[in-house]
Write a structure and sequence with these properties.
Blueprint lengths: L1 H6 L1 E4 L2 E4 L6 H15 L13
Antiparallel strand pairs: 1-2
């Protein structure tokens, strides 16, 4: 909700208008994915111990 408030809304007389149609669920999930990948890079290699 905070992203909506700051990035896709504007102040007008009587309150603030939020343009929800410009910020879809898909867009929000892409933002969240970018943040998570910045802090926790994806694992690309898995080493398995040998059974010998």
């Amino acid at each position: 909700m905070r992203l909506l408030w700051f990035f896709v809304s504007r102040t007008q007389r009587g309150g603030r208008v939020v343009y929800r149609d410009r910020f879809s669920l898909k867009t929000m999930l892409e933002f969240l994915s970018q943040v998570v990948e910045r802090h926790f890079p994806p694992i690309t290699v898995v080493y398995l111990p040998s059974l010998e």
